[in-house]
Amino acid sequence: MYDLVIIGAGPAGITAAVYAARKRLNFLVVSKDIGGQTAWSGDVENYTGYQFITGPELAAKFEEHMRRYKVEVREGEGALEVNTADGVIRVRTDKNGEYETMTLIIASGKFSREMGVPGESQFKNKGLTYCATCDGPLFGGKDVAVIGGGNSALDAALQMMKIAKRIYIVNNTASLGGDAVMREKVEKSSMVTVMNDAQVAAVVGDRMVTGIKVKRAGKEALMPVQGIFVEIGLVPNSDFSKDVAKNQRKEIIVNGRNETNIPGIFAAGDVTDVPEKQIIIAAGEGSKAALAAFKYLNQMR
Amino acid sequence: MAKKVTVYSTPTCPFCIRAKQFLKESNIQFNDIDVSTNSDKADEMIKKSGQMGVPVLEIDSTIIVGFDKEKIKQELGI
């Protein structure tokens, strides 16, 4: 039986692991990936101490810090189910792992929201991607569509302005959101066509994406594009924890001490209802959760 | 004889970084192809893997899409 299991290894999970290691807890980290969304970020200029660092570099620093301690990490393993009985928390994973623990920190973050339209899953990685930073360079000289109207959509469009031939932004609201600085750059570019009040109806193609069906003012039009970048926000990775209370957005509800409604289960970072989703906030929340779990364990003993 | 390993990747993709890190830690020599600067190689990767996501690993003639650690280990016999 572990003192603590941490689900997730983004800034929240890794910081929790560093604190737990320093408290000499007997613990395990289970995570699908290392670095979480930080690893997918472009440039980071607001993490104190680093005036400028790229997302992958910061994620590598996080990991290096965690590995300084002999931390047991199960990478590539995702939680499937969490349940509690007689004060013991059980975590079941997609690699047939079953771990018993006194306390749990859920720091599983968020993942990209899908559009839920025909053709989306069929053409995933066949022209359709949720990571412009990763796959963008493969679309050199091609016509592409960016779906969304917030900062991540603008960021994808800005990245693709250096790579693609034409960029269509398909936005389902009346005007683009996001930061003014980015919006102006995108709107000024002659490469970019912004389509507001537009909905994606379907993704079409043969072996790879060949186009996208867009509904606008009651009419549906087929636009030939070879690439589609879906940037319509994120959803919390919280489905595996059925009994933990969540808000309407499926974010786990925590109090100031990162406690959930279930004794012994804590949560931290983007998977929670903490206001503002930032790397530095997730890291801070991770440390709070680990300290709270440590105090809880002391009270139980 | 050691298997021939090729990694098709972009410099900005986290799973590419992980995959290459894993190969280095396992002392596996590999040919690193940056498809963001080489469109011929990008086309080659798409043709071989039938998709456009990175990383793609080619171990002898076996294609592995994504950083699938278990499959990579199995293919390399490590």
Question: In words, what does this structure look like?
Answer:
The complex is a heterodimer of chains A (301) and B (78). In chain A, helix 1 (11-22) runs parallel beside helix 2, helix 1 (11-22) packs parallel to helix 6 (279-300) and helix 4 (151-161) crosses helix 5 (180-188). Chain A has helices at 11-22, 55-67, 132-135, 151-161, 180-188, 279-300; strands at 2-7, 27-31, 43-44, 53-54, 72-75, 79-85, 88-93, 98-106, 110-112, 128-129, 143-147, 166-170, 192-195, 198-205, 209-216, 219-224, 227-230, 234-236, 265-267. By secondary structure, chain A is an alpha/beta fold. Chain A has 6 helices and 19 strands. Chain B has helices at 14-25, 39-49, 69-76; strands at 5-9, 31-34, 56-59, 62-65. The longest helix of chain B is centred in the N-terminal third of the chain and has 12 residues, at 14-25. Chain B is globular. The A-B interface holds A 33-35, 39-40, 42, 55-56, 59-60, 75-76, 125-127, 129, 131, 133-138, 140-141, 207-208, 227 and B 10, 12-18, 35-37, 39, 42, 46, 50-54, 65, 69-70.
Quick recap of the structure?
The complex is a heterodimer of chains A (about 300) and B (about 80). Chain A has about 300 residues and is α/β, with parallel strands linked by helices.
Annotation keywords:
heterodimer, A: FAD/NAD(P)-binding domain, 2 domains, B: 78 residues, Glutaredoxin, 4-stranded mixed beta sheet, 3 helices, 40% helix, 22% strand
Say what oligomer this is.
heterodimer
- Alpha-carbon Rg of chain A, integer: 21 Å
The level 1 CATH classification of chain B is: Alpha Beta
CATH architecture label name of chain B: 3-Layer(aba) Sandwich
Structural class of chain A: alpha/beta
Determine the strand fraction of chain A and express it as a percent band.
Answer: 25-35%
User: Which class of the largest domain in chain A in CATH terms?
Assistant: Alpha Beta
What is the string of SSEs of chain B from the N terminus onward? EHEHEEH
Question: What is the CATH superfamily label of chain B?
Answer: Glutaredoxin
Total strands of chain A: 19
Number of helices of chain A: 6
- How many helical elements of chain B? 3
The neighbouring-strand order within the major sheet of chain B is 2-1-3-4
User: Pair with the most extensive interface?
Assistant: A-B, 28 and 22 residues
Q: Please write the string of helix (H) and strand (E) elements of chain A.
A: EHEEEHEEEEEEHEHEHEEEEEEEH
What does the overall shape of chain B look like? Answer: globular
Provide the structure class of chain B.
alpha+beta
Tell me the helix content of chain B: 25-40%
